Amino acid sequence: MNGTITPSTQYLTVPGGRIAYDDTRQGDGTPVVLLPGMLDSRAAYRHLRPLLVAAGHRVVTMDLRGFGESSITWDDYGPAALAGDVLALLDHLGIERAVLAGNSYTGATVVKAAGDAPERVAGIVLLNAFVENPPQGALMRGAMGLMGAALVHWPAAWGFYLRRMAFPGARPADFDAYVDGLVAALRTPGRKTATRGYVHGDSAPVGWTAAVRCPALVVMGSKDPDFPKPELVADRQAAALGARKAMIEGSGHYPMADNPAATADALLPFLAELG
Questions:
Q1: Quick check: 83 and 77 in contact, CB under 8 A?
Q2: Are β-strands 17-23 and 244-248 bridged in parallel, bridged antiparallel, or unpaired?
Q3: CA dihedral over 265, 224, 156, 131, signed as positive or negative
Q4: Where does the record place the AB hydrolase-1 domain (predicted)?
């Protein structure tokens, strides 16, 4: 897309099912692995990937358990299990070290992978992630519980969130078709199991960042509706990781889609420093 050829889907079999991914294969420097957020697919990076490739990077994008073209039903959808999938994919591709980028739910995944296998992770990027969030109060827990139930039983609720909240400013040209596809995917037989697994997963672990020793970059949309004060969240994560911070002005929860150019501008200097 965006004038480039989209790599073909490949699969990795791991205990419990198959993980779908694609790989541009070529590129100088440390490879980059991009992980989407929950209920999304690796196509979330369809507008950012070409910019990273054009800058000379090998880019791997991976579907999560239960979504995209990966197997739907698994025993575990938590970020620690996903971290194991990422490391297995690096082994499969013969990649000794990579930069891992996670959006939203999978911010915790890349943090976990970096802590568990520091020799394999050259750096991490958190894109509007939830890690190191303080415990929620009773009112917020109740609201999130209701939202989770809505996502499991009424896929249209996901479309409502994406259309009315997640993209407060610019939208990609293919936005409507993309959202329609995500909502349709939630209606696939068996998908409720996967949706429930993510809704009840721990996307905001506190303390995992303490094990991270690699360089880190925190990227946050300034108008992310998931956080009352997005910049304060980014500051907290950057402090926990000793990371640099990049705010994407006007972006919502998916800066790699609503402002891929600014997101690439934030990522490329960081990637260049890692070799």
A1: no
A2: unpaired
A3: positive
A4: 31-170
Cα distance between residue 16 and residue 193, in whole Å = 14
Alpha-carbon 2 to chain mean position: 20
Q: Give the span between the Cα atoms of 251 and 249, in whole angstroms.
A: 6
CATH number, domain 10-136+202-273: 3.40.50.1820
Give dist(CA 175, CA 63) in Å, integer.
19
Per-residue pLDDT of the chain (275 residues; tens, 9 = 90+): 444 567 899 999 999 999 999 999 988 889 999 999 999 999 999 999 999 999 999 999 999 999 999 999 999 999 999 999 999 999 999 999 999 999 999 999 999 999 999 999 999 999 999 998 765 544 445 445 556 567 777 899 999 999 999 999 999 999 999 999 999 999 999 999 999 999 887 877 888 999 999 999 999 999 999 999 999 999 999 999 999 999 999 999 999 999 999 999 999 999 999 97
Task: Report which of 251, 212, 3 is spatially closest to residue 104, judged by C-alpha positions.
Answer: 251
